[in-house]
Every structure is written in structure tokens, then in C-alpha cells.
Amino acid sequence: MNVIDACWRAKLNWVSNRRALADCAVGFGKNTSEGKNGRIYIVTSSSDDPTDPKLGTLRYGVIQTAPLWIVFAKDMVIMLKNEIIMNSYKWGGALYLYYFKDDSRYSM
């Protein structure tokens, strides 16, 4: 088990207490705290509209100024129309970003 899972998943109620994950952070984010007590925002749609982000999309969640935990309703692939800039104080679930250019994929 990795360091984070050993800290978080060792607790019997880890599934229902996702906020405990914040106490297990390592590296650069270890001492962050502002987003820890934010409300939960659920991404329910894989659509993306950079000019008018809709409630339920990832882009809508990341531009909010309030602290948020961003979680996903299900596994999804989100094809962004352009870059996405995340405001401060956001905690999230597993999020993998890829940049596609000339049929090559770069992980970010």
C-alpha cells in the first residue's frame, strides 16, 4: 500500500469519510488547509463550454472562488475545448490531465 492509502484506507470508515484523505496529504500539498472544509461539488457532466460553463461540469467547479472538494459522479473522459485554469482551494478525486497534439499524448 502506498503512503496515502496506508494512512487513509487503514481507517474503517474511509469510504464514508473522504475528507480524512486531506489529513494524509504528502509533498507540496501537505500543509494546505483552505479547501479541506469546503463543500462538495459533484461533476456530473463530461461536457465543456469555456464561454458559459454549466453547473455539473468540471470547468464550472474549478472556476468557483469558494473552497470545494471536487468529486466525480462516475468515471468519465472530459474533452476540454481549451486550457482549464483552476482557482485556489480545491481538493479533488483522481484527475488525470492529458494534452493531445499532433496525435501524441502527453500526461500532465
From TrEMBL:
Q: Which domain of life is it from?
A: Eukaryota
State any single GO MF term.
pectate lyase activity
The protein's location, in the record's own words, is:
Secreted, Cell wall
Q: Which SUPFAM superfamilies match?
A: Pectin lyase-like
Q: What broad class describes the main subcellular location of this protein? A: secreted
Q: Which keywords annotate this record?
A: Cell wall, Lyase, Secreted, Signal
Q: Which Gene3D superfamilies match?
A: Single-stranded right-handed beta-helix, Pectin lyase-like
Query: What family does the entry list?
Result: Belongs to the polysaccharide lyase 1 family.
List the protein's name.
Answer: Pectate lyase
